[in-house]
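Researcher: Structure for this, please.
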Amino acid sequence: MLPNYFAFATEEVIDNQNSSEIAQAETILEIESPSALLMELNSGQVLYEKSADTARRPASVTKIMTMLLAFEAIDAGKFSLTDTICVSEHASSMGGSQVYLEPGETQTVDDMLKCMIVSSANDAAVAIGETIAGSEEGFVAMMNEKAAALGMTNTHFENACGLESKGHLMSARDIAILSRELLLNYPEVMDYTTIWMDTIIHKTKRGESEFGLANTNKFLKKYEGANGLKTGYTSAAGFSMSATATRNGTTLIAVVMGSKTKEIRYSDAAKLLDYGFANCSIYEDNKVLDGVNQIPVTGGDKDYVSVEAKNSFHYAVIGNSGEGDITKEIVILKEEAPIDKGDVVAKMEYKQEGKVIGSVDILATSSLEARKFHHALERLFRQYMNIY
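Model: Predicted structure, token format:
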């Protein structure tokens, strides 16, 4: 028996049910920073925004992209945490925030990540990028390709670390998109972002010496549940950050850009997170198909194709809009054979007060051939045998 939430594809456009709540938040919150955005991690839902699409200088917040590409390289087997990186003349020449790596010095990937993430070291960031792509220029091309793939439409990178460059820009929305991508795919990054103090050992021709690392993100000690992600500052960019915090299983991403002081940066991030935790509840559906494991198909050698949900569904409910009003319906996208395994054949569409708030793709878990002449004969024969 099929559930009563089957439907066929329509032209309905996904609407943001929280738009009125976002507008209300703008009047409640007094955010001083020129750009800001608050996002819930799992749903990717925006809970507040202010000039979120304005491209600004990101400074060392840039390194979130370098982190992402580094973890992707590890995941792809390009290198491991225990492999070593040899520092080039170019990487060692980076100014600004650094750990004073010397040409020819070697450090493990693990320690390079610590230097970049904890101490915001420009020299370590460039060394990692060169190792991944062969040159900083090649790595910057990878950064821009990844930004385009993620839909970061107001971002352009010109270096791996965030040093001042006229065309090196990001928006608050893009930083949130990038932060979410990193945290969802590589939550182990928080093993680094939560380090308060650590040390590395410089290994040069002159011998070995210990060097202390201190986290540039002082928000970790200022806000309950804070666990990341990256700060940035230059005199031209002002103070920016992507601040993440987790409370009661909910993780929020608060981005602020262009703050006049670090105190304003931290204050605005705290205001955003306080608002989110106080007004946000999470609707979560881990049983998207409610036991349904097949959907009807026409023109195939079988009448049904087996299916599964691509992922669970998360939605951040803001203010007085209740979870109880959320309904769901399967929308058939592909109703005729042939169907290949992995095809998106339907979607589970979620609505609140009649408006679409999101969806989950439904995938075929097996292939289904189009009905051929011999299939039709077999079907007729079975029907004949059932009669007699």
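Researcher: Any notable elements?
Model: Confidence is low (pLDDT under 50) at residues 8-17. The longest helix spans residues 262-279.
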